[in-house]
Design brief:
- The chain is an alpha+beta fold.
- About 20% of the residues lie in helices and about 30% in strands.
- Strands 8, 9, 10, 11, 12, 13, 14, 15 and 16 form a 9-stranded mixed sheet that branches. Strands 2-1-3-5-4-6-7 form a 7-stranded mixed sheet, with helices on both faces.
- The longest helix is centred in the middle third of the chain and has 13 residues.
- It is elongated.
- The model has no long low-confidence stretch (mean pLDDT about 95).
Length: about 250
């Protein structure tokens, strides 16, 4: 069964996400329609890219991933069709895909053909329908030389430290840093760590799990996606530590 996923900033309060889903199902009878998230913060392409990057490969190869975040990023926005790592993608040319793909070039990059007056919802639904019917991208898109790039969230890596930043805060208020396990462990080469975030807060060990600290104690761990995470054992790390997206986190090697 073909799989179509949605990553949007449409939220759950209003009818918009439901309307988009209804249009997709009408255009693609029989597909399995799955949400990655409809609660991306409005216009936040970095957050959308983080969620997409860490989700799409969990779906069957050949799935179609639709992104509807910050679609009106300019007066005449371009909408893209891409093929990357065995998956298909459609969404706005606002930098979200360059972030989600870690700066890698997709195997196929094309511009969706948008009819005069056609809405983003109807364009995405129609594209999904034509893909589901077996049409090749030449039927609904045209060649495109390149897509928009956004500033990468790669950390600064030096011999004695790594300087990163918080890129996402999850519903448990855990703060995810743009430093992956392989990056940190490769750079530290067995040395100890001293993790600073805010003026007086620090952590001196990376734990295997939440239970290794007492209730409400701050800690660092690698999350399920392999990113460094500032957390609390059954506590609200972001709120209690005053942390926000884009805050700097520095890891010194001792």
């Amino acid at each position: 069964m073909p799989v179509v996923t949605l990553t949007t900033d449409l939220g759950l309060k209003d009818h918009y996400a439901g309307v988009l889903k209804g249009m997709i199902l009408s255009a693609c009878p029989g597909v399995s329609l799955m949400d990655i998230s409809n609660q991306v913060d409005p216009f936040n392409i970095a957050q959308a890219a983080f969620l997409l990057e860490n989700s799409y490969q969990a779906f069957p190869a050949g799935s179609l991933h639709l992104v509807c975040v910050d679609t009106d990023y300019q007066q005449e926005p371009l909408m893209l069709w891409l093929h990357h790592q065995g998956h298909y993608f459609a969404g706005p040319d606002n930098g979200v895909f360059s972030l989600a793909f870690g700066g890698q070039e997709p195997a196929i990059l094309r511009q969706l053909v948008r009819e005069p007056g056609q809405t983003v919802f109807s364009l995405l639904a129609a594209t999904a329908g034509r893909w589901n019917s077996g049409q090749g991208p030449e039927a609904f898109s045209r060649p495109l030389a390149g897509m928009k790039s956004s500033l990468s969230w790669q950390p600064q890596i030096e011999p004695d430290f790594i300087r990163g930043r918080i890129i996402y805060i999850d519903r448990f208020q855990n703060c995810i840093v743009n430093v992956k396990r392989e990056t940190l462990e490769g750079a530290r080469s067995g040395r100890g760590v001293h993790i600073y975030f805010k003026r007086f807060d620090d952590i001196r060990e990376i734990q295997a799990g939440y239970g290794e600290e007492g209730l409400g104690e701050k800690m660092a761990r690698y999350n399920e996606d392999g990113y460094l995470e500032i957390a609390m054992n059954k506590g609200n790390a972001a709120g209690l530590l005053g942390l926000q997206v884009n805050d700097i986190v520095q890891i010194d090697f001792l």
